[in-house]
UniProtKB/TrEMBL annotation:
<dbReference type="InterPro" id="IPR043502">
    <property type="entry name" value="DNA/RNA_pol_sf"/>
</dbReference>
<protein>
    <recommendedName>
        <fullName>Reverse transcriptase domain-containing protein</fullName>
    </recommendedName>
</protein>
<dbReference type="InterPro" id="IPR026960">
    <property type="entry name" value="RVT-Znf"/>
</dbReference>
<feature type="domain" description="Reverse transcriptase">
    <location>
        <begin position="1"/>
        <end position="307"/>
    </location>
</feature>
<dbReference type="Pfam" id="PF00078">
    <property type="entry name" value="RVT_1"/>
</dbReference>
<dbReference type="Pfam" id="PF13966">
    <property type="entry name" value="zf-RVT"/>
</dbReference>
<dbReference type="InterPro" id="IPR000477">
    <property type="entry name" value="RT_dom"/>
</dbReference>
Length: 657
């Protein structure tokens, strides 16, 4: 086992519980959960900490079972700090800096590379049967010991996994408690981390088979010959094995799986495990019989996302559209106000496509369908007849500060989610998914890979890469040693990029691809030009050097990206959305706080917004929609047309009321 912790890590894990550490863990626990059998929730503990804190701390330091949830939270926070040392990069779950999308991205890139190579391959998607319930305790503790955990930690872990008790309900009444002999607690924050450490057993065996050339994965290679081999990807118990369509390799896999089942207690459910051919695989059924799994065809799904599908295909979005339609069926059976429908759109419907949009570009046709679903539900609700849509959709998707309703613009949201990949690639130090992208597409500059052409590379990576100019435009460089920063194109001074500010000087310069470190030296700037400068160009050069006068020199540290948003350094999808949405500029004088930031019912806020927009269906607005009505006000009987202002401000009957 290559992944172990050292003595310093063990000291941190096994040291005595500190008072502040206990209090911090109490605050992290869910407020509606009770740590012990007395029923007192964590909200009670936090509210009354000054009174009960000392007693709780003493109980926890004695490792008493009555406050197990707090103890588990403390141990969880500790083990989080060393998980990256214990778990292989192929495991993407529950580790800081790793995401579920990383596994999906790598799986699609590997399939794309294999498809283009035209070599037959096999994808084996495994399903672990009742993963938490079957784990062998002896195997888990032995694995922890081999990973370098000390005796005290092992005793703590044995206490945590073995003290759980169960009771069976008969006619709704518990019939006593009994202990278990294997498995992990459901709902325990410590259980996911222990489980992925246990899953390292199968990872280690696959690695050994790869090192001994008994197993060959999918190779991701560039045009210049660099390559990277991926044999498997894991997200908790979801395991995807990639190998050649070779009987000997599948027999090795069968041996690995049988050994893992025997030592860990975990069992692969072959009725739910599938083998998928990549390219033309001869005699697939006989290969499937070696493992005992079922066969399928690409495209399929992996972790709820398309695998091996064309990213521009509208068909891969059918599941998202169907989920939205199912939600609407349930909501339309209820009598909801405009405010209630707007709340459901903002909190549920807007977020339902987010998972898919995090990796795949959303086609315009899908946006139109989702916009139609949201628009019709907002204005028509549960009505079976068509109703008037009182305000244009382009106005509704503006922010509330900009006189809209704050409904999400899906196209811009998709762009921001794509840009997040580019930000992570440019700012992360080391990650397996980054190695895959870097190996396959090669680096154009220190921040980004080369442009993805139509003849090489996956379509979703091409869509992501196309957003780099927009991200670069909205990022500044935190200059340190200058080795990664383009002197001309990156924004490393406050005013903007030097290429934009001094295009004439840039055109004359011979070092257009140079970094700051290559042009700067302790003696000053080493600029060279294609020809001697004319008299009128000298003045521009003087202005150019005045701007460079802001530079204070380099330091021995890596350059990094910074997001231009009120001095906030880190990129976030929310900040990018606010920056890129042209509708988000605040309109002077629009009283958005008086409408939305009040304590009145939300449905009243929505009606007030319609009044401010002059969109209420008065006689004037109905006549604009070609409905023939008498122009006079029906309340006061005057000849004045019933407008919004007349009905709510000037009508004498309304004033009396």
């Amino acid at each position: 086992m290559n992944h172990k912790i050292n003595a310093e890590d063990n000291f941190m894990l096994q040291k005595e519980f500190e008072d502040q550490e206990i209090w911090d863990s109490v605050k992290l626990c869910a407020s509606d959960k009770a740590p012990g059998p007395d029923g007192f929730t964590m909200a009670f503990y936090t509210h009354c900490w000054e009174v009960i804190g000392k007693d709780v701390i003493a109980t926890i330091k004695n490792f008493h079972e009555s406050v197990y949830k707090i103890i588990s939270k403390i141990l969880t926070e500790r083990i989080k700090m060393v998980m990256h040392k214990l778990v292989d990069p192929q495991q993407l779950a529950f580790i800081k800096g790793r995401q579920i999308m990383d596994a999906i991205l790598m799986a699609n890139e590997c399939v794309d590379a294999r498809t283009r190579s035209r070599a037959p391959g096999i994808l084996c998607k495994l399903d672990i049967q009742k993963a938490y319930d079957h784990l062998n305790w002896k195997y888990l503790l032995e694995t922890l010991s081999k990973r370098g955990f000390g005796g005290r930690w092992l005793r703590w872990m044995k206490f945590c996994i073995s003290t759980v008790k169960f009771s069976v309900l008969i006619n709704g009444t518990p019939t006593g408690f009994f202990s278990s002999q294997r498995g992990l607690r459901q709902g325990d924050p410590l259980s996911p981390f222990l489980f992925i450490i246990a899953m390292e057993g199968i990872n280690d065996m696959l690695k050994i088979a790869q090192e001994k050339s008994r197993l060959r994965g999918f190779r991701v290679s560039s045009r210049v010959g660099a390559d990277l081999e991926i044999t498997h990807l894991q997200y908790a118990d979801d395991t995807l094995v990639l190998c050649d369509a070779n009987k000997n390799q599948l027999k090795i896999l069968r041996v690995i799986f049988v050994l893992f089942e025997a030592i860990s207690g975990l069992h692969i459910n072959w009725n739910k495990s599938f083998l998928y051919p990549v390219n033309e695989v001869h005699d697939l059924p006989s290969l499937a019989r070696i493992l005992g799994g079922r066969t399928g065809d690409l495209p399929t799904t992996y972790l709820g996302m398309p695998l091996g599908a064309k990213s521009k295909s509208i068909g891969i979005w059918n599941g998202v559209i169907e989920k939205c339609e199912k939600r609407l069926v349930n909501w339309k059976s209820q009598y909801l106000s405009l405010g209630g429908r707007l709340t459901l759109i903002n909190s549920v419907l807007d977020s339902m496509p987010t998972y898919m949009m995090s990796l795949f570009p959303i086609p315009d046709g899908v946006i139109d369908k989702l916009d139609a679903l949201r628009r019709n539900f907002l204005w028509e609700g549960n009505s079976e007849t068509k109703k008037f849509h009182l305000v244009k959709w382009d106005t509704l998707i503006e922010s509330k500060q900009a006189a809209g309703m704050g409904i999400r613009n899906l196209k811009i949201q998709n762009q921001c989610l794509m840009m997040k990949w580019l930000w992570r690639f440019a700012s992360s130090e080391q990650a397996l998914w980054k190695d895959v992208i870097q190996t396959k597409y090669e680096m154009e500059d220190p921040w980004i890979t080369k442009t993805v052409t139509s003849t090489y590379g996956s379509s979703h990576r091409r869509a992501i890469r196309n957003h780099w100019p927009k991200l670069r435009e909205n990022c500044s460089i935190k200059l340190r040693n200058g080795r990664k920063t383009s002197f001309w194109e990156d924004r490393w001074i406050e005013q903007g990029s030097l290429k934009t500010l001094f295009l004439d000087i840039f055109t004359l310069n011979q070092q257009q691809r140079a970094t700051v470190a290559e042009i700067w030296s302790n003696q000053g700037w080493n600029l060279s030009f294609r020809r001697p400068l004319n008299d009128w160009e000298i003045q521009r050069l003087v202005e150019f050097y005045k701007v460079l006068g802001q530079f204070k020199g380099t330091i021995d540290a890596q350059d990094s990206l910074g997001w231009q948003d009120h001095n906030r350094d880190n990129f976030s999808v929310r900040r990018a959305y606010k920056k890129l949405n042209p509708c988000n500029s605040q309109r002077n004088g629009w009283p958005w706080k008086l409408i939305w930031k009040t304590k009145i019912p939300y449905k009243v806020s929505c009606f007030t917004w319609l009044l401010a927009k002059q969109a209420v269906l008065t006689q004037e607005n109905l006549m604009k929609r070609n409905i023939q009505l008498s122009p006079r006000c029906l309340l006061c009987g005057e000849e004045e047309v019933e407008t919004v202002n007349h009905l709510f401000l000037h009508c004498r009957i309304i004033n009396i009321l």
